[in-house]
């Protein structure tokens, strides 16, 4: 009998500008704390324009899109937030997670003194 796989709450979408190594490092850490992420090239919207990515994230309840692209903008009325990560491959996993969860707290309006309940 197969072991049952844990079900993670997917909170983040990483677009194709995020390198594979960074995505898998962040995803491994997110899985440890019970959350998950989607990487653009491995998703159903791999080569889709940003409008389709926003619709994909909104339909699945993914509140944050992370990117390294400086020129990327979301269409007006998008139900998701865009987080621009900086410093590319030199950024540590902890700094990326701090930026992502900081933005998530802002989206959910949870103060830093209270635990995050997604």
Q: What features would you describe in this structure?
A:
- The protein has 118 residues and is of the alpha/beta class.
- The protein has one domain (9-108): 3-Layer(aba) Sandwich (Rossmann fold).
- 34% of the residues lie in helices and 16% in strands.
- It is built from three helices and four strands, in the order βαβαββα.
- The protein has helices at residues 20-32, 50-60, 93-108; strands at 9-14, 35-39, 64-67, 81-84.
- Strands 2-1-3-4 form a four-stranded parallel beta sheet, sandwiched between helices.
- The longest helix is centred in the last third of the chain and has 16 residues, at 93-108.
- The radius of gyration is 14 Å and the shape is globular.
Summarize the structure.
With 118 residues, the protein is of the alpha/beta class.
Overall, the morphology is: globular
Radius of gyration: 14 Å
Strand order of the largest sheet: 2-1-3-4
| CATH class designation | Alpha Beta
Helix content: 25-40%
Total strands:
4
- Please identify the oligomeric state: single chain
Q: What CATH architecture would you give?
A: 3-Layer(aba) Sandwich
Secondary structure topology:
Blueprint: E1 9-14, H1 20-32, E2 35-39, H2 50-60, E3 64-67, E4 81-84, H3 93-108
Parallel strand pairs: 1-2, 1-3, 3-4
Helix pairs in contact: 1-3
Q: What structural keywords apply?
A:
globular; 118 residues; alpha/beta; Rossmann fold; single chain; 3 helices; four-stranded parallel sheet; 4 strands
């Amino acid at each position: 009998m197969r072991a049952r796989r844990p079900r993670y709450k997917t909170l983040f979408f990483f677009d194709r500008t995020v390198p594979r190594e960074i995505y898998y490092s962040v995803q491994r850490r997110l899985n440890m704390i019970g959350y998950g992420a989607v990487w653009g090239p491995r998703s159903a919207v791999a080569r889709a324009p940003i409008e389709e990515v926003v619709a994909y994230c909104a339909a699945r309840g993914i509140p944050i899109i992370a990117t390294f692209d400086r020129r990327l903008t979301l269409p007006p009325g998008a139900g998701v937030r865009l987080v621009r990560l900086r410093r590319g491959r030199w950024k540590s996993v902890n700094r990326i997670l701090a930026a992502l969860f900081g933005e998530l707290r802002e989206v959910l309006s949870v103060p830093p003194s209270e635990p995050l309940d997604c």
